[in-house]
Amino acid sequence: QVQLVESGGGLVQPGGSLRLSCTASGTRFSFLTMAWYRQAPGKQREQVATINTSSTTNYATSVKGRFTISRDNAKNTMYLQMNNLKPEDTAVYYCNARYTGAWGQGTQVTVSS
Predict the structure, then answer these.
(1) I want to staple 49 with a disulfide (CB 3.0 to 4.6 A). Which of 31, 69, 96, 98 is the partner?
(2) Which whole number is the average pLDDT over 50-55?
(3) What are the backbone angles phi and psi of residue 73, rounded to the nearest 5°?
(4) How far apart are CA 26 and CA 43, in angstroms?
């Protein structure tokens, strides 16, 4: 059973940066396609970025050029580097292991002055 634990959220001013981490256990991490999602209050959960087993990445239009998804298979960890954060990036961020049904518990990101 795949288990995912996120960390790295917090409060940051507009224009600031944060790095989220998602550590997996219970399976061979390098075999997983991974994704970050986010859910803002009153809105549906939306996909932010994905990274497959070949480290090919894909981004939502709203974050392209500002966010970078990456993975370190030796550490069983995926990252989301978020730069030039905007108030509209405020949400709970979740990591997901595709095709396994596994989700992290979520980490809050708040962008506010």
Answers:
(1) 69
(2) 97
(3) -65, -30
(4) 31
CA 85, 81, 33, 64 torsion-angle sign: positive
62-93: pLDDT as tens digits: 999 999 999 999 999 999 999 999 999 999 99
With vertex at residue 3, the alpha carbon angle to CA 9 and CA 69, rounded to the nearest 5 degrees, is 45
Residue with tokens 């991490």: 29
